Amino acid sequence: MNNLYKYILIFGLVAIIGSINVFAQTTKKKTTRIRVEYLKDAQKVLGMGDSVNGIEVRVDNIYKAAKIAGLIADKFGPPYRAEDWMQLNQTLFQAMKTERRVMFIILSLTILVAAFSIASTLIMLVIGKTRDIAILKAMGATNKSIRKIFVFNGMVIGLVGTSLGLGLGLLLCTILKNYDITHLTGGIYYLINTVPVKLEILDIIAIISATLVISYLATLYPARQASKINPVDSIRYS
């Protein structure tokens, strides 16, 4: 029983002090044990008199906890300090951020594999259309225009794949968010029994941008090879 917290519920500017207390004992494995007891009894057992060594504040909007903690710290000053729930669980949130970065890298590698498919498709197209490319160049088509044709072709493939993936992903996230179709083991995951889903616009934009950039890069080599075709040799030996 290391820490004693006296609950305070705040409604606007009015503070209502609760009459119960919570003990928290944390081990090296970050396992928390909770015990609820009347405040006066807890103070008597610990020999603390009328004092407490911690006060918790409950807010209506959890995302404003950092701002409220700052106001409390400014109000009372040293030796008192205020910590919000994000600071208390900083290690957990840092691990979650690292996990998101790793998942983005894995997704980018998956998209890179798909980009090789785009490149191989365009290379086969260049081989199959060698005579047509030669005729276009003989009629006055420039190397730049030939490159644009194959870049456009590859980007169309990338856009179609991105649109289909985006649509299916949004559909799956919507289903998971609105319907209880997944169940997690209660003994492993704390306070949740379903997969939490939240759509982040910035994440979606980042994934789409990375997909389109990789698709564009995959078109450059086949387009360059197509623009280097010699029309005379191609027509002669085709």
Helix- and strand-based class? Answer: alpha+beta
- Distance between termini? 86 Å
Strand content is: 5-15%
Morphology call: elongated
Largest sheet: 4 strands, mixed
Radius of gyration: 31 Å
Quote the average pLDDT: 76
Can you list the strand order of the major beta sheet? 3-2-1-4
Order of helices and strands: EEEHEHHHHHHH
Name the poorly predicted regions: 1-32
Total count of helical runs of at least 4 residues: 8
Number of structural units classed as domains: 2
Helix content: 55-70%
- Strands, total number: 4
Would you write up a description of this structure?
The chain is of the alpha+beta class and 238 residues long. It has two domains: 3-88, no CATH class; 91-237, no CATH class. It contains eight helices and four strands; from the N terminus they run βββαβααααααα. The protein has helices at 39-46, 65-76, 85-88, 90-128, 130-138, 143-178, 201-227, 231-237, and strands at residues 3-11, 14-26, 32-38, 55-58. The protein has a four-stranded mixed beta sheet with strand order 3-2-1-4. A hairpin with a 5-residue loop joins β2 (14-26) and β3 (32-38). α4 crosses α6 (143-178), α4 (90-128) runs parallel beside α7 (201-227) and α5 (130-138) crosses α8. The model is unreliable at 1-32 (pLDDT under 50).
